[in-house]
Amino acid sequence: MPESSLQQDLSRCGIPCSTDVALKEFSWFKSGGSIRLLISPETVEQLHEAVSVLVRHATPYKVVGETSNLLFLDDADYACLLCTKGVNGMSYNAENGWIVAETGAKLPDLSRLALHHSIHGFAGLEGIPGTIGGAVFMNAGAYGYSIDKVLTKIELITPEGELQALEAGELGLRHRDSLLRQGRMKGIVARAWFAAKPGDSKRIYGEMELFHAKRHKYLEYMYPNLGSLFVGSVYRELGKKDLVYRVISALFLGLNYKFKLFRRESPINRKWINDFTVKRFNLKFKTQPFSDKTINSLVNNGQHTDEHLDYIRQLQELTGNRMIIENEIVQPF
Ligand SMILES: Cc1cc2nc3c(=O)[nH]c(=O)nc-3n(C[C@H](O)[C@H](O)[C@H](O)COP(=O)(O)OP(=O)(O)OC[C@H]3O[C@@H](n4cnc5c(N)ncnc54)[C@H](O)[C@@H]3O)c2cc1C
Predict the structure, then answer these.
(1) Mean of pLDDT values over 138-146
(2) d(CA 202, CA 157)
(3) Domains plus CATH for the chain?
(4) What is the four-CA torsion angle of 105, 111, 115, 119, rounded to 10 degrees?
(5) What ligand 1 atom has the least distance to the C-alpha of 136?
(6) C-beta of 70 in contact with ligand 1 (< 6 A)
(7) Predicted confidence (pLDDT) per residue in 34-82, tens digit
(8) 81 in ligand 1 pocket by Cβ < 6 Å?
């Protein structure tokens, strides 16, 4: 197929791109149709240039990092993704007391860099498999640690292709939320500066190891998944609907967490309560769309994404649409 003028402009700037990329191979969740044009800049300058080219060609696109929060639909093809994974420089500046990270750097690498320099505030981010850009967008966090607690400022590429410096306080960062996520601020996070406060390396190491072990016990790491589907506990929210379920699930989860009961060390330590939930609320599916470790995490067992959407709809109906969805369903464009 002949190169489009958009591709020609990107190649002239030396920006890597590819066509007709299968999302089943590219995306974290291994779902979705195809991407007609995937742009993969390798520097902040190329990222900036790519936006200018896209603006000139009036081409709709979506910026993505690791896609670890994105549910691409199997029957959908997507026009253009701008992927930041190649823009991943990161450095620690002891004199200025900050870590500066480019948008595609990964959170696990950021937390390990912090550990290496005995910097406090990043231990809980160790197991989150996203990029800096995706993490700022979501205000990602875990175990009491989150981006808003360490972020100082960012550089944003506006939809018009301008560079804008913004203080962290201007981003409206709240629990798994930001103005970017709400669509009230538009643009691409290009770089982020983090406050580097000295800490005790032994303590940081101990915490990281503990969080790592907890994650592998309570979260899915085998089948492709997208972390938490909804913000908060689905078990607790379902419990508001049904007193018997509330008591049984609270007892199970409480005892399971506190004591080594119910095969706590087993990788399927929540299977019993999950099976009970399915029966109690009459959840319907052909192939189980959630992890044995928690009903609040979608897994890709090879089923069509329509089955995932149907499961999400059932949970939303059961919880009176009160739960905020954390994963993002990417509609075709
Ligand atoms: C096993 C597993 C565990 C997880 N655990 C956690 C957890 O503990 N805590 C948590 O918060 N999340 C968790 N997540 C979810 C996910 O990793 C985070 O939301 C992460 O921040 C997403 O980053 P990403 O690079 O994958 O973003 P993507 O999924 O690629 O994108 C997410 C959104 O951010 C936007 N975006 C991406 N890059 C940029 C950018 N540079 N500028 C502007 N917008 C951008 C995208 O357009 C999209 O709307 C988990 C996921 C998995 C698979």
Answers:
(1) 96
(2) 38
(3) 5-83 (3.30.43.10), 90-200 (3.30.465.10), 219-330 (no CATH)
(4) 90
(5) 21
(6) yes
(7) 999 999 999 999 999 999 999 999 999 999 999 999 999 999 999 999 9
(8) no
